[in-house]
Batch of 2 targets.
Target 1
Amino acid sequence: MIDVAQLLIFATPVALAALGETLYERSGQINIGLEGMMIAGAYAAMVVALPTGNPWMGLGAGMLVGLILMLLQGFFTLRLAKDQVVTGTAINLLALGLTGTLFRAQFGQSGQLLSLAKLPKLVGGLDWVTLLTILLVPILAWVIRRTAWGLAMRASGEYPVAAEAAGLSVLRLRLGASIVAGLFAGLAGAYLALGVAGSFAEGMTAGRGFVAIAMVTFGRWRPGWVFLASLLVGYAETLQYAFQVRGTAVPHQFFIALPYVLALAVLVLVGRGGRAPGALGQPYRRSR
Amino acid sequence: MRLAGLALGRGAVIAFGLMGILVLTLAAFRLPIGDSLRLITQGAFGSEVGIARTLVKSTPLMLAGLGIVVAWRAGMFNIGGEGQFVLGALTGATLFRLAPHVPPVVLNPLILVASVLGGAVYAGLAGWLQVRRGVSVVISTILLNFIAIQMLDWAVAGPLQQAKGQLPMTERLPEAAMLLRFNRQTDLHSGVILAWIAAGLVFVFLYLTRRGFQLRLVGENPSAARVAGLAVGARQVGAMALSGGLCGLAGGVEYTALAGQLGTGFAQQWGFLAIPVALLGGLHPLGVIPSATIFGALFAGSENLARFTPTGSTLVYVIQAAAVLGYLLLNELRERRAKLAEGAA
């Protein structure tokens, strides 16, 4: 039997990060630094929640730190129009390095096992963040598809020169998407620490940021499908735990790899007919 | 002469920049700067053992860094060095499993060739997917990284697991099938020389052959390359295969020089860390040599530092990140100055 609540909780960090990344990619940017923003969010959440015992303040701290890292990234990718993959790689290393080093300085070489106050549960074992995540799916879809801001965002992702010619500011639009994506990434990491693990460990995101990027592609840049793709990751994670207890004929690594294999297969099948934003990953420099 | 002066000047700027970043990082973490610098220097160069460790740590960075250079210069953002590293070693270990009784003298080169092929096929697949199916290499190599790591986890606990013992580990290579070690006190192995030779070969290929020139042209200006009659797609797939081959070789060298067997923790992030190494080497094969050596030294030095302070290799990540961002800023300043000079003329 599938434990739906557990599945949703496991899926929430990837889903949140992937939803933010959806908007970010729709505006024409790719966030290779997502992994780093998540681990920084998780660390900030731990630093605040541990002494205060207040998980809400932890979530807030996580979002703030996610935003700060995103603004640092934006300084390079938007202001200086530097390559997004290069900048994102540096942001990842920065966040992994800072959190790892600070954590060791505070808690010693091996890192003791921390126990954080988890978020209170509501109906059916869910909490506010999982509910918020589910609620965000239709809201984000509506914003992207139906609002003027969403339309402008898509224009900046598909054909920035035309968007600029139509009187829109591509840089301002991309900054807007960055702010949302940074907050989401920080919240995703904070929730991983406070909602899923109830603890913090060095490198605890374990690739979830990269998974989120992959799931955006898997979900064809549409919030609903991206959310479903994230659920698949959550499902694979619950299976992994179940199998470690029971053991099965099929190796559990197969289930962990399944979302990636499926994502790749979908990409291969859909190929060029996909809906990847036309200007994805290209720095935008305003011509003077 | 002027070129040499320019290179020296640039090297000096980077060296001073890195030193500054190192000191600032130590200060930011409230580590005693003098003592920490002494410990890092000691660990990296202080003794024969230290120097050997620096060279050994720089080897996977150099080989995989060269791989990144080749792909990125062709305009293919290969960030799957990690997966190709793993798959290379895995292919080598599979060969050993299938043919354990091959004479050791032949076995070692065979394993290295298998590693190159494994990495090349894996990266070539990503290149092919972009060229033929429009799947961005950035995305596909991320996915392939995860798949490779799961394949490793599965293989070392399944088909490749050693016969005796419960640990998820492959069979250990016989000593004679390992890469040559120079003495008993240190880990210094012949793979170090292999990496330097590879850097020279990649330089010759990229800058002195027609193929290499075409590869760079494809990266810098694909439409010009197309007009010139080059099969751009085929060159891109080829560049990915070569890139993956080098990353796979890095895995094969790590396998046959140090570990001698594969386990779940084999990857150690070398494939990721090679990206900043390649960038700070100016995406130039000869630039990768000092870049990989510097970071090899920092990793070796930080190990020594970790013995006396609660730090670790994560400290080097911060330095790498700051160096890449500083490098981007430096480039920006240079571009602006060039533009100003242009305007004045």
Target 2
Amino acid sequence: MTRLALRNLFQSRARLAISVGGVALALMLILALDAVVGWIEARVTAYIDTSGADVWVSQEGVRNMHMASSSFSSSLASGVARVDGVESVTPILYLTNVVEAGPERAVAYIIGLPDRALAGTPSVIRSGGANPGRGGAVIDQGIAEASGIGLGDTVQILGEEFDVVGLSAGTASLTNSIAFISSTDFAGLLANPRVASFLLVRLEPGASAEEVARRIESQVRGVTAQTREEFAAQERKVVRDMSTDLMAIMNLVGFLIGLAVMSLTVYTATLGRRAEYGMLKALGAHNRDLYLTVGVQALVSVALGLAVGLMFTLGLAAIMPLFSANLGLQIRAAALGKAGVAALTFAGASALLPIRQIRGLDPALVFRRR
Amino acid sequence: MLIAQRNLTQEKTRLALSVGGVALAIMLVLILDGLLVGMFRQITAYLDHSKASIIVAQGGVQNLLGATSLLPPGTDDRVAGITGVNDVVPILSRFVILDLHGKKQPVYLIGYSVEIGGGPWEIAEGREPRTDREMVFDRVLAERHGLGIGDLVAVMDKDFRIVGLSAGTASWMTSFIFLRKPAVEELLRAPGATSYLLVSVRDGQPPEAVRDRIGRLDDLEVMLKSEMAANDSRLFGRFFSAPVRLMTGIAFLVGALVVGLVIYTATVERQREYGVLKALGARNRLLYQVVLAQALLAAILGTVLGMGLARAAGTLIMAARPQFLVVLQADMTGRAVVIGLGMALVAALLPARVVARLAPAEVFRR
């Protein structure tokens, strides 16, 4: 029966291509969207991961950077520096603003760095320096290239002009880039210059980040302290929680598409072979055997669809960097599992539809002329 | 046409599947479009409901939601003194993340003056804040998290009591919450700070002329309200249009695949009949018309059904998830029809090939 199913399946190449293509499209929708979110989740923490800070200190109740706001008195930095296990404290300022480079305007996280910052500087510098200094700015290389500017050119940030002194890499995402200016310049533009947004804490060798974070919270009032990993996890959670509803809709769309295509192809394939199935019944085949044939066809179709869908997604992930440096795909194991379950559901549901047809099939049908 | 109709309607389940396939695809396209239009409406809701016609922001900032604006101190007085300006409403706004029942919820925080304006445009329940520890919370977000009047919500390092619930301030991505401006200044450690000025003009004054006059002041970005709303739509449209277009494309392909498969199967099954027609002298053109007419019939029926389904699905989505706004506009009907016809044309290609290759002698074999 398995052989019969396979021969049935491969005999009509057009139908096979439609069913495999439809399932592949549906599963690709599920896989690609999850992969985009996976990539954004990974990229959204790039600055945190490479900041060099072991502990992040923010305004009490603030647990992440993305779409968040954190402000506290910069004098708290000295209190944090006195906590056991703390080697250095780098206060940074942070706001979402716009980098105007030539005719281009791009939304950017603006980071204000103190002179000789021990943490928080851009980790990869393509040209120039990592320290912006007074009147200088380090901007993302991709943004600079898109605007046709380079070292020594002028950009506008927070409404003021800055000279580009460094070009960084890995500091841009789908939504924004990161630009670095000096804390002194930044503070001059704030209503209250004596504030910090975050304190980046480096630890003495051997100190536990968890313990130091708890000590900071208990000894310094008005702050929340988290290890780098905790802070990055909170950041990923923002992306995940924001995309949950959208993902649910997309997954439902992909699921409905896959289900519709598979049900239709299996149903029409069975319909087209009524005479053959009638012949098998006339020769003594049980309904069970025919169900198996239909089931195997559905299973093989979705397995092929899953493979093609995965190949499409991998191909998309490979070519995406050629089109956009700010968007990528990171395929996750959980999404593969989800796509696999969806594929099995497509196969199961689509095989159920023709059961009534097969059960009601008259073996004598084969002897009639259409 | 009669042959096409009979071919198509003879097998009821197959007809239902093809019409259902097109309807599903059309419904998807319309719902996705409706979600996108709804999202743009939600994004610009605050500006749309503001009485101001001009928005003043920090130099270089052209969005309300996309970037943080910090105006130089004293800007409100300077703007108020300009000819043609009727009144100036300062607001201090910022995105913040709330932790609600273990979920991260971005909200757009607006600090405003109850006396001057800039707050919620519709209070569904309760009242506006009277103290710096009170807030107006978005009604939909409150319902999703089981919050109501009198409940406390932590915003950064302070707790605020909900005294009012606002309507029309929700979106699936972010919702608006309203505090008194001094409360936001305290939260942001920015005494006296202002993000934007909402400027209305005197009767008879053209907003463009007043905008240009304000624009002569240094370090400011001055825009008509409609210009800033368009900038916000463009910014968010850049993030969301691509995935929606991708899904619309996939929905179109699926619709075409479904109709194509049904017509293809029907054509293959009726090869002998088509052979007879050819043997009797029918030209390929006539047979193409039969195939195309079947595809068109399925597509038209599916499009009509799809439009009805989209309306029902939109109502269902908004009832189940009130943060989503699905706006189905009249012009979308025309687009749905064009898409449906496009599906029919694409779907007819494969069966037409089968018919074209058919030898008239086929009918005499077996």
